[in-house]
Design a protein that fits this description.
CATH topology of the largest domain: Rossmann fold
Shape: elongated
Number of strands: 14
Helix content: 10-25%
Number of helices: 7
Order of helices and strands: EHEEHEHEHEHEEHEHEEEEE
Mean pLDDT: 95
CATH class of the largest domain: Alpha Beta
Largest sheet: 8 strands, mixed
Radius of gyration: 21 Å
CATH architecture of the largest domain: 3-Layer(aba) Sandwich
Structural class: alpha/beta
Number of domains: 2
């Protein structure tokens, strides 16, 4: 059995992968789940919780899911702190499996796994390294997407590629939906890589670093949209997916609107005004048609 530590955070991405791996207990031994927290739980920056086997809850946090699966859980707001590193080291990991963690791991954390770390990144590396690849793909109008399983080192999304899987982002998909699709594909990549590693035949391909692009966390100005420069389908898709990260902002004359979601596009349609607002529905003129958006009012 391969001793694995699973590192991630609650949300639409990591929990489905953990659920899949917990169901494959015959192929690997999950001995620790590490959930990264935005802030300390009460007064405790690090809390080690015992397993609490039971039925898998449907919409559980990563910690609750891990405990229900019979795995010890470390909740920490600083995975690189010496206390966290010592706790992780006590579990004698062979592999770290990381899915959606919000910070880089220190050399000390990486050294707790005898055979190394595997990270499931939601883009086709080396394109869109960094914390928010989906936001930037949606902003650029890209729909060809995917996940990459790569080796971990001290740099961001930098190590050798072990597996990739591509898919097309569905029209009008919310950010959570796209992450769930990526998780379904990525879970199988992780399971396959661990089986290959157990057989001693896991070989990675170095990334072409000269082709790398980066996807930083979006700033307020990154969510600004000038509709006259956008296609209507592009804008509606962006308004559906981007609010998971930051709500798109439209400044129309003296009015400012923040999109909650996209409703529909009407290619080829034009209207005499730049926009029209009815309740929470904003209709805005794009370069090739009309975009209907739900906005904050």
């Amino acid at each position: 059995m391969t001793r694995v530590g699973f590192f991630g955070q609650s949300g639409p991405y990591a929990p489905p992968v953990l659920r899949y791996l917990l169901a494959r207990g015959d192929a690997l031994e999950l001995v620790l789940v590490v959930e990264g927290k935005k802030k300390a739980t009460g007064r405790m920056e690090h809390r080690l919780r015992k397993p609490k086997p039971g039925p898998f809850p449907s919409d559980a946090s990563l910690a609750e899911l891990g405990r229900a699966g019979g795995v010890a859980v470390l909740e920490t707001c600083d995975v690189n702190a010496p206390t966290a590193v010592r706790t992780i080291a006590d579990f004698g990991l062979e592999w770290i499996v990381c899915v959606g963690f919000d910070r880089l791991f220190s050399p000390a954390v990486l050294a707790t796994a005898a055979r190394g770390g595997l990270n499931l990144h939601p883009s086709l590396l080396p394109r869109w390294r960094g914390p928010s690849p989906l936001f930037w793909a949606l902003k650029m109008g890209e729909r060809a997407w995917g996940v990459t399983l790569h080796g971990m080192d001290e740099k961001e999304d930098h190590g050798p590629i072990y597996a990739q899987e591509s898919f097309i982002i569905p029209r009008r998909a919310a950010g959570e939906e796209v992450y769930r699709l990526a998780a379904e594909l990525g879970a199988r990549l992780i399971a396959g890589a661990l089986e290959t590693a157990r057989a001693g035949t896991l070989v990675g391909t170095p990334q072409r670093h000269e082709l790398a692009t980066r996807a930083p966390r979006p700033r307020p100005e990154d969510a600004f949209v000038e509709p006259s420069a956008w296609g209507c389908d592009h804008l509606v898709d962006f308004a559906c997916g981007a609010p998971y990260f930051r709500a798109p902002c439209l400044k129309l004359g003296e009015d400012v609107f923040y999109a909650r979601r996209g409703i529909r596009a009407e290619p080829g349609r034009r209207m005499p005004a730049q926009f029209a607002l009815a309740g929470s529905t904003l209709v805005v003129q794009c370069k090739d048609g009309l975009a209907h958006l739900e906005v904050q009012v």
